[in-house]
Design goal:
The protein contains no helices and 11 strands. The protein is mainly beta. A hairpin with a 6-residue loop joins strand 4 and strand 5.
């Protein structure tokens, strides 16, 4: 059984930083790429960042470029999302997702393309 678990959320003031972690487990687990999405109350789930294991390629939503950094440690099956210069509009539940097989980078932003999801971790940025 595959499990994806996020951690590291919390309450932070605007301008502050948080680092989220996403750990995958399960003997059968293997992934081509992993991604972070977020969902604020009353809004649709939106893409934040993606990390491709082969080559370490990274992809970001325009709204977080220059502020967020996604990285991964293959041996730990863990990806991280370092979030700096946080803004109140970054407040949301952050979800980690994993994609088993090849995915065209143009589709990384589509949440329907991912096979496994975590339960989410709340990030709240106060003004």
């Amino acid at each position: 059984q595959v499990e994806v678990v996020e951690s590291g959320g919390g309450l932070v003031q605007a301008g502050g930083s948080l680092r989220l972690s996403c750990a995958a487990s399960g003997r059968a687990f293997s992934s081509y790429a992993m991604a972070w999405f977020r969902q604020a109350p009353g809004k649709e789930r939106e893409f934040v960042a993606a990390f491709r294991w082969s080559g370490g390629n990274t992809y970001y939503a325009d709204s977080v470029k220059g502020r967020f950094t996604v990285s991964g440690v293959n041996a730990k099956k863990t990806v991280y999302l370092q979030m700096n210069s946080l803004k109140p509009e970054d407040t949301a539940v952050y979800y980690c997702a994993a994609r088993r097989n090849f995915l065209n980078p143009d589709l990384y932003t589509h949440y329907g393309q991912y096979d496994y999801w975590g339960q989410g971790t709340q990030v709240t940025v106060s003004s």
